[in-house]
Amino acid sequence: MNGFNKENLLASGHRACPGCGAAIGVRQILKATGRDVIVVSATGCVETFTSPYGQSAWEVPWIHSLFENSAPIASGVSAALEVLSKETKVVVISGDGATFDIGFGGLSGMFERNSDVTYICYDNEAYMNTGVQRSGATPYCASTTTTPVGQYSIGKLENKKDMPAIAMAHGIEYVATTSIAYPNDLMKKVTKAINIKGSKYIQIHTPCCIGWGFDPSKTIKIAKLAVETGLVPIFEKEKGKSLVSKRINKKVPVKEYLLSQGRFSHLFKEEEREKIINEIQLLCDKNIEIFNI
Fold it and tell me: Does residue 1 lie within any of the structural domains?
């Protein structure tokens, strides 16, 4: 973490779960932005554990928006700063529910206007704050409270929505993915993004021990496995040009990642579900080929 802000701008004493990937992600983001930033967050896990009534864990200016409008609010803040000739950075930190689903229209509008905002999605792959319901970010065959496993159900039937590709299709300045398992990569990408004029999108993989079903001490291990299997490719594109991706040093079979979480445990209880694991492995192999990782 050399060269980044040494302050912890997410104050201790907040109410995140032990091992919360989102809390780790926010701390890393703020080390990259420093104090001269205005953060907007939609309703979600981060908003809930950082701002109970009358309290705040934020050591920077922070605005809570509704699920659907963090991007439009950030656009307005950016426009106001431009009128005032202020160089303060504007960053959105919102979850996958607000990004992939409920706030998608507003986010698309922000991209189309090319507002000078860095939009960061902390991706814990479900609506964790409201009870672990599936979102557009929930992966294939994951069990959630709205895609429960049963005699005739294998969990969520749809693949995860490809939000980075959707962001790139808008022609915005910068798109990147990263993971809390690699803080230097994460902070370098946030630093780069906030210093590029126009709209930027960063998606951070943030495992959730409660919703995914693993021991809180294993958050970083789970995050690394997701990358090492190829299921979560790490890459960046600037002005549509692909830059060097984070390469996998030693490829890990996706079965190891799936076995580590309760939300996929049903895939190992019946022999006929082996073909589903093979399908997910093919998806990982395809990611490795496409992103050259």
Answer: no
* Residue type for position 150: G
pLDDT tens, position by position, 84-135: 999 999 999 999 999 999 999 999 999 999 999 999 999 999 999 999 999 9
Residue 4 lies in a domain: no
| 119, 110 contact by CB (below 8 A) | yes
Residue 111, CA distances (Å) to 104, 116, 148, 186, 244 in order? 11, 9, 35, 21, 24
CATH of the domain at 77: 3.40.50.970
Range of the domain at 59: 21-291
Q: Is the pTM of this model over 0.85?
A: yes
Nearest to 5 by CA among 38, 24, 27: 27
| 91/194 Cα distance (integer angstroms) | 8
Tally of structural domains, the chain: 1
Neighbouring CB atoms inside 10 A of 96's CB total 25
Q: Is residue 197 part of a domain?
A: yes
